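Hi L., both proteins are below.
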Amino acid sequence: MCDSSIDSSRGPHVPRRILVIHGHPDRQRFCRALAASYALGAREAGHCVEKIDLALDFPLLRSALEFERGRIPESLPAAQEAIRKAEHVVFTFPLWLGTMPALVKGFLEQMMRPGVAFAYRQGGFREKLMAGRSARIVVTMGIPCRRFSTAVGMRPMA
């Protein structure tokens, strides 16, 4: 459990609330080891770390109305609260068919509903509720980065 006295506004070396979300549905994969290593390193550096393994059972959203007004599935309130509290979120997942696994996308759709990622304001404008936070995305893939970058028309990273 995280110490409620953590306040990252005091400087860069102050402990932060970090949430590591692992999005590979298979148990014995390199991606899982990366998530565990990130969490361990952050803990050893003095940060408060929570982990979510997306081996959860939840339904997919089927409409905009369900996104805006539907009830969050019973398996997800703790995950939603962890996202609300996190100051830094880390996602680990494999690249499947050129994108994140459907499990990760479905999870994000359930989590980033009104009241978590944004709130509706008068006049139809949205208020950003996650402003000032940071994120890192760790993606594994079965081909070298340079080949992937070339295939999708991106410049390779140095």
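That was the first. Here is the second:
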Amino acid sequence: MSRTPRASRTAVLVCQGRAAADALIAPGRFADPTALPLLRPDEREAVQWVRDGVPPRTWQQRVDYETVRAAAELMAPRTIAIDEAVRAHPSPQLVILGAGLDGRAWRMPELAGVAVFEVDQPATQQDKRDRALLDAARALALPVRRATSLRHSRVMVADRP
């Protein structure tokens, strides 16, 4: 029985954190419009609770809320620092190790024309490709050109428009 590859829980949580923080934490310095489209509907629920600032009542939902809220508070400054480092050191190539559901190659105009290589576990990379291509109207509309094996991980090269 084949199993559909799924992104790691860490990849999803980091993406949820970026989606929850999008334009709310450090406005003007942090925005990630690519995060929410990469999440599945059930993964968006806790993001919306955090964005609304309304903690749910049940304990399991409250745990999800607090986890995503904490991730948002960490992901905004972390993403700002990485983006600033990428801007400070332009290069014709960028390798993102442990890329997860990162949308940097799509959201940073500074990376137009840069060959961006995303390295992560094969299941996470396959799930990211599936998520990005799932619904062309909702998705990022930025095609993934190819994935190439790199030992036990995969490299995904993101095309820029």
